[in-house]
Structure formats: C-alpha cells, structure tokens
C-alpha cells in the first residue's frame, strides 16, 4: 500500500511516493510553479497530471497500488474542490486529502498541527493553528495583490527603486549599478523591455531578491529600506494571525527560501517578533 | 496633401486623417491599448497596421496621398526606432515623426512645446519642456514597476485594501462592501479567481478607480488614504521634473481620465502643487 505526497509551491512542484512507514521511495521534483494564480487552472491541471503519471512511471509503480494522496498547493485555498477533482480523475481509487500550501508547510515545520508559520518564498503568507485546532492565514494573495516581503516582492521593489533613481526620485546607490549589471543593461529605460518581455516570469523576478539581500548585508541604504519594509509586512502578516487566533506566546517557524536560511530579512523579522 | 496623426494611450488608440489646414477629415478610435508593455510588440504592430489601413479605407483615402505621419504612443519611449520602422513599412512615402505619448500630450495640452504635464489615465507620468527646449519625464514605467496614482494603481490599491481587510489588517469600510458588490463576489477569497483570470486586463482594473474616487468623495477613510497616497505619488513625479528642468513657476496642465475632470485626486494634487 503506497501513498503519494504532492507539494506545489510558487517555484517548485514535488511529487513523492511513500511506503507504509512513510519512507520516501521516489521523489520527482521539477523547478516549475503549479500555482493556478500564475499559470491558470488548465495549465496547472496539465502539469499536475503529467508529474504524477511520470513519478509513477519513474518509480515503476502501478497506479492501482496508490491508496492515499495528500496534496498541498499554492493558489488553491479557494479552489480545494477543483484540486480534489483533478486528483480523483488521475487516481480514482485513492483517498484524496487536499490543503493549501501554507497548511502543509506549517505541519511540516512544527511536526504537528500547532503553532505559527511565516513563509517567504516566491510568495508570502503567515498561518497558524491554535490549541483548539482553529486555522487562520494572512497574505498569500498572489503577486499582483500582495505577497509583500516575498522574493517576488523584494525583486520588484528593487526594480522600482532603480526606476525611481532613473527619474531622480531615489538615490543611486551600489544597488542601482548592480541591478543594471545583473540584467546586462546599460540604460535604466531598458528595464521596461526586460520586465515586460513575454517570456518573463515571476520566478526570474523572485530570484533577483538575492541581490537586495546581499546589498543590504553590505549596508546599501536603498536595499536596507526595502528589506526593512519587507520584514515589516511579514510581521503584519504574523500579527494578524496571532490576533485572530488569540495566540499567547505561540511557537513560530519560518519557511521559504528567504526565511529558511540566515538572511537579513529573517534577522529583522525575528527581532520584530522578539525571537532573539 | 494629407497627414495622419496617431495617439496611442493605455486604453484607446486614435488614428486621424488631417488636411493641409490640420482639419480632421476622419477619426478612427478603438477602445484598445496599443502599448507594447501591455500586449507585446508583435500585437502592437498588428493593431497599428490594421488601424491605419482601416482608417484610410473608411475615409476613402489612398495611402499615396499621405505625406506626413505623426505618432505619439505609450510604452515606446525606449523604442522610438521600432515605432518609426513599423510606420515606414505601412506608409513608405511619408515623412514620419514619432514621440512618446507624454510628449504629444504636453504639446496638445499647452498648445506649445513649453510647460509641465501631469498625466493619470490607465498609467501615470509627468513631463516637462523648459524655455531651453529641454525635455524631462518621470514615471511611465508600466503597471508592474510604477504608474503610481494612475487608474490601474488606484484600482489595484482598492483590491489590496480589500485583501488586507479580509486578513484583518485593514478596516472594513463601505469601500470593502462596494468592491465585492461591484465584482459580484460574496467572499473576498474570490478576488484571486477574479484578478488572475486569463481574460483579465489592466483596463478593467483601471476602470475600478471610479469606485475609489466616489467612495473618497463620500468620506470613506480607506478610499481617502488611497487617493491621498496617489496624489502624493503624482506630486513626486511633478517635482522630479520641475527640479531636473530648473523650472521656476512653470505652467501646469493635467491629462488623462483621472485628472482631466473634477476628481478628488485632481483637487488634492492641485493643492500640493499650490494651484488653488
């Protein structure tokens, strides 16, 4: 009796096959989003189907031996039924459990259904589950509506700062020079051609966050302002979850590329929360 | 001897045929953008070609009688050569003059190449031409990078406020209720489905600015905060142009749907500039 676990984040889709002892027998990982807010429901369904079937094929597992499927995905909190239906159509004999990505990330980080999780990867969100089992989340509205403090947001704030500096509305610090060098452009006006190119995707913008983080570590004032604002937004997400769950002194974990390693963003956020 | 004038804004493409006295013989207007930052260069070229040929056809004018073409378009400031080449290929016998949309808007508003123009339509920008003929502009970076204080920006800020209110990070004022009613959704979570639908376009988001403007007129505190911030951003654009042109007491005109009529945004911006 086998189980399949699916973790669909803003930048990576993982499908794993597990035995009865929950040992991973095979892991299939593709560096692509499966977030319907970014790529649409039709494309998400295609990627999901294809990845599940390919994982079974790679592992030499027949689909009839899969009894349980657990899937946590970004951008589906409002469309869990849709996700369930897609999975039912691929694995009709299995028991299907679906959840938003932040819920599985919280349980994964704390090892139980309890505590607070602040997430900053391609997108951003906070969520919590209190002692009564109540769940609340904040953020996760996608790249146009929110995702403040996420990799995408930091990358875009950096590009906005470059645009303002070109207009004479912001200081031209080292971050300005480094951004143009990184994009291999000489004139800030070319930012427009770069950013609105049809092939541009959110992941490429989110990857630029590393430039802001590194510049902030070296004391760049514009980068520091961006990181400070990002940490403040993440703290607001955290606080709104704490308040709504009446959570006193909750255990807090971090997830996502920008908080799971030692970054200036993580340091600042920990300070604000009072974790150091 | 005839001339063609082309005005491509964020939401409307106009092609006019003029006689030697610059009287408009025929005007072709389509409610679509021709901004390559929004729809790409290939699609812009297609729309432009088609509109010019259709205008000539409607007016019963043979293309060989067109001697001058003047085109001002959004999103082409960095790609004026591209625009010139497209027009040369359609009307090879004509003399072609190309300019960014804000430059023709400034000349149109002041009736001469002198003064400052602040523009807020689907996008936003400021530009100016001083007594020495120097031109400077600020803003106009498109919907992802800037356009603060524009219709698109106001509409999106409204949706962001609704998202924050759903998270408990913002007050639920009348604007919250009216936005959901306007979008015909009952749950704020459905905002995501609405906003990221493949058919959604910037013009539809920009049109929602009228809700914020009307709520602000009725004293809605969240709407007022958005309008105040938008006016402040437009003032920053204005100031950066004034400074770079060393402009003392410049004549100022407004353009675009959000500033060309009496709106709370226009009133606030005029106050900041000291025009009343």
UniProtKB/TrEMBL annotation, chains A, B:
InterPro entries: ATPase_BadF, ATPase_NBD, Euk-type_GlcNAc_Kinase. SUPFAM superfamilies: Actin-like ATPase domain (SSF53067). It comes from marine metagenome. Residues 4-267 form the ATPase BadF/BadG/BcrA/BcrD type domain. This is ATPase BadF/BadG/BcrA/BcrD type domain-containing protein. Pfam families: BcrAD_BadFG (PF01869). Gene3D superfamilies: 3.30.420.40.
